Amino acid sequence: MSLSSFGEHRPQIALLQSSLDAGRLGHAYLFSGDSVSALEAVARTLAKVVNCQSPPTVGRAGLPLDCCDACSSCKRIDAHEHPDVHELRPESKLRQIRIEQIRELIRAVHLKSHEGRFKVAIVSWADRLNDQASNAFLKTLEEPPPTSLLLLLTTEPSALLDTIRSRCLHLAFGEGHAAPHDPAVLAWLTSFVDTAAQAKAQPLARYRLLSLLLSELANRRKAIEKQLSADSPLQKYADIEPETEEKFESELNASIEAEYRQQRGEVLGALLWWLRDVWLLTSGTGGSALGFPALEEQSAAIARRISPKQALDNLRIVEQTHLMLARSNVQETLALETSLLKLDL
Ligand SMILES: [Zn+2]
């Protein structure tokens, strides 16, 4: 199987290939999706690509962009027999990845590569890393040996420790991960991108972008409050016991909060998809690989004035904030402000 055969994951594959092309493949990736075996197929294929002996295409940085599927390296990786490709899955009865397994993997990754260009470690069901194993893995994730590639696979990215996740570049595969197409989100994103494309990254422009985001979120919260309050039983009965009233009120507040979080996730998700587009464009990938091809012109204008590293940093900054907001009750405005004012656009 070659990378180009994963047609259904074109944006993610395009992203990996443009990183290979630019010689900027990350050292640690978190692949998430609906099925671990599908993710394993992608991970194993990537392992073949970086170690292929007669790649069909080679990128500008001299790295293969796909694998031949026929050389001895490709064949042995398919047969799980390549000495530089290590695959690890939960073993114990508790279906946990134990610290001993991780220690062995770390040792293997730090050894000099036998023959391949890259030492590749594939950790399936990475959400089953227990705390001890996670902690043992942190240092290697933070400072992976050169020419190593660590691939963590999971169906539950939110079950991983923050410390693990923040050290990996997250690629979401599978359904439910297409670029958003809700017209209201798209309209907002378009005005955000237009503003970003016109203004260079001056502090003032960043504040303008921040205020576009904050006002969109505030409007959405207001609309949710209005709609859910109108549907609440509080509006239907004039005479309610104070206790019941309190109960209705707290139910109402909880459902407002839940709906708001959901919508905020969609807005930030769209922003992330767009920052991915900008990143792709910094390495010359555009067109149908983009989540928002209609915004390509504006996105390309930004991609021309920043480096792939800056584009990747942008993506990471917003992804961190997105996850942090989804998982905890951090102060929203502060978190968004800190994040947006750091962007290089
Ligand atoms: Zn090959």
What do these coordinates show?
This protein is α/β, with parallel strands linked by helices. The chain has two domains: 3-172, P-loop containing nucleotide triphosphate hydrolases (Rossmann fold); 183-340, no CATH class. The chain contains twelve helices and five strands. The protein has helices spanning 10-21, 36-51, 72-78, 99-110, 131-142, 162-165, 183-198, 203-231, 242-282, 296-305, 308-327, 332-340, and strands spanning 28-32, 85-88, 119-123, 148-154, 169-172. The chain has a five-stranded parallel beta sheet with strand order 2-3-4-1-5, sandwiched between helices. Helix 9 runs antiparallel to helix 11 (308-327). The longest helix is centred in the C-terminal third of the chain and has 41 residues, at 242-282. The chain is globular and about 80 Å long. The structure holds zinc ion.
In short:
The protein is α/β, with parallel strands linked by helices and 345 residues long.
